[in-house]
Amino acid sequence: MNNEITFPYPYIVERLDQHYGLKSHSSKKFVSTEQPKEQPKKINIYKKGTKKKLSILIATFWSFPHVGGLSNYITTLSTGLRSQGHKVDVISPNQFSTSKVKNLRESVTPNLKSFFTKRYGSYNDRILNHKRLIYVYEKMLETVDLEKYDILHAQDLFTANILGRFNEIYRKPLFYTPHGMFTFNRLKFDIIKKGSVEEAYFKELESKAITYASHIIVLSDSFREPLIKLGAKNRNITTVITGIDYPKNQRQEKATSSHKLTITCVARLGPRKGHNHLFEALSRLKKYTTNIEVLIVGDGQMRKTLEKQKKDLGLSMVKFLGSRDDVPLLLSKTDIFVLPTINDSLPLSIIEAMHSGTAVISTNCGGIPELITNNKTGIIVEPGNSEQLTHALKFLITNKEARNKMSTNAKIFAKKHLTIDSMVGKIKHLYIDFWEMN
Question: Using a CB cutoff of 8 Å and minimum separation of 24, what contacts does 232-238 make?
Fold first, then answer.
């Protein structure tokens, strides 16, 4: 790499200039990352309605495959599309050469530090590191032949920015699926400060991702309001709830399980999943938990803290099972599924529990209320409200008839709305509509 300054995208520089009270200089003074050479426009020889097999690129800024909802979503979508004969490639940063990535990171860092220091007098560590990651991923994506794809589908705001810049040349249908509201969530949990340069930086990237997208596919309607606040048009947003391929007839194994009533929570052991509130609720219900087992499935940074809380509260019925690859089997033996999360989008574990035919208790956040209709397919409580969670648990523990009815309703809803066929079919139709218009 030469010694010229590599700077974040021009719109980012302009936004940072505004934050620092600078008058933006002409972008001609700075060097941007390379754009692909202009490609000749392909003629769409297929008529509308033709059953064209698409070539699709699904790309993410995060590691894939990985543990979590994003990775599961990509796997589900790509597998479903391939089963219908479409060609699908999935690209993520961890798929590129580690030595090349290392060299790019090391070479760009001094240039970025120089740019930020000369322009603003200092640099922000989080922005510097993030811009370095974006630069490396962009340089990797430059080696990909984007022209061969009919559809580009970014799974995060950063990939949407990178592909959006490239797509100024290629002009492909570019879809964008946010799996969380990046800036909002970091402000909510005090990871970044209101009014900070970090807020300005990330919010500008979120707004530009919306501008670049041909259409936005969201996991739940809860994304609409924050996206609209960032500049999206409601008509350019389509909600497609995640579907899964769930094993059939798992529930038949319930008859052979323990006579104990089983409560299960499947979630990463992190501070935002609310396990501490579940334990607080259980501590108030000892009168009703003498014949109950509580299975905590998952692992994470909070495990030691939660094990201590369990001990301090005398919750002998709680068992930590760690990470498991037999969740459907565990759910087949579960009477009540609880996810006391305080921040989520559309948890896969709830969808799995509904398919299994389990009564669900969860919280009023993200897209969860679009899965759980209160007192019909489950019970919704407010995030972090241990008292409400206590009442919900007591009700389902002591009321078998209500528990069974909610279990049945949840399974019916899941089979109708939360399948791979439903999810992939809706997304495929969007792809084809935009490809035909392209």
Answer: 238/426, 238/430
